[in-house]
Amino acid sequence: MGILERLYLHPTPPARVERNQDKRQKKFKKKWIEVDRYIAQRLGPSDPVLDMALKAREAAGLPDINVSPNQGKLLMLLAQTIRAHTILEIGTLAGYSTIWLARALAPGGRLITLEAKPRYAKIALANIAHAGLSNRVDLRLGRALDSLPALSAEGPFDFVFVDADHENMPEYFQWALKLSRRGSLIVVDNVVRRGTVLHAGASKPEIQGIRRFYDLVAAEPKVSMTAIQTVGVKGHDGFAIGLVTADP
Ligand SMILES: C[S@@+](CC[C@H](N)C(=O)[O-])C[C@H]1O[C@@H](n2cnc3c(N)ncnc32)[C@H](O)[C@@H]1O
Questions:
Q1: 7-17, pLDDT tens digit by residue?
Q2: Cα distance between residue 115 and residue 143, in whole Å
Q3: Is the CB of 159 under 6 A from ligand 1?
Q4: Which residue of 160, 165, 173 sits with most ligand 1 atoms within 8 Å of its CB, as the best mutation to test the pocket?
Q5: Pocket of ligand 1, candidates 73, 93, 114, 168: which has the most ligand atoms within 8 Å of its Cβ, to mutate?
Q6: Does pTM surpass 0.70?
Q7: Domains of the chain by residue range
């Protein structure tokens, strides 16, 4: 019997197709993680301060939602490329990405990071102090949308990293732009979320937040932005990276 006859006469039952897809996905995920770890080992040798920040996050029971080591290094490189002097981060968690970014600051530079949860902020402050960065990092406790208006007097920011709740991603993008200048870089994490960004009819406010963010960017003439899908230890997601092309 030829392959076409076999396919027509004995089509694969849907359950088996799904099982095979699951198996393939698991295999892919394993490979993404292995490759991510290989890159981190070769290009981002172990750093006791950053490793400690992750251990402190885990020991305190905070969720494993920080950027990966390779993503942290990418953030640092981007901020270094534009010689960022002022950095704004929305979403601190335990301060892991904060440390990567603060290390990129030009001499005399400063970073403001916004966090809503006091318990997370406490761990972050300890990690930032352990990294010797307390004099350059200013953590503002409270809901980001409440803290952002006061930052108008402290900007413009050369680099803004948005990594908080997805629901408010469009508002964070608008604030990032408002607090920027021509030449600033805006980076937004979690803009793909395993492809759920495609679910136009989804009722989840997080998904709608990400989609509204894309709509805003698409209509915004003062930012040139793209998004890159990422795979690795964090699964399938994406970073949006945009250059502010005119003064807001
Ligand atoms: C993905 S984590 C940040 C991870 C961090 N940037 C890193 O990579 O190490 C998101 C953080 O945003 C905080 N967050 C969520 N909603 C917030 C809000 N409305 N205002 C301020 N922070 C918020 C969460 O408590 C959490 O710590």
A1: 455 555 567 76
A2: 7
A3: no
A4: 165
A5: 93
A6: yes
A7: 3-43, 48-244
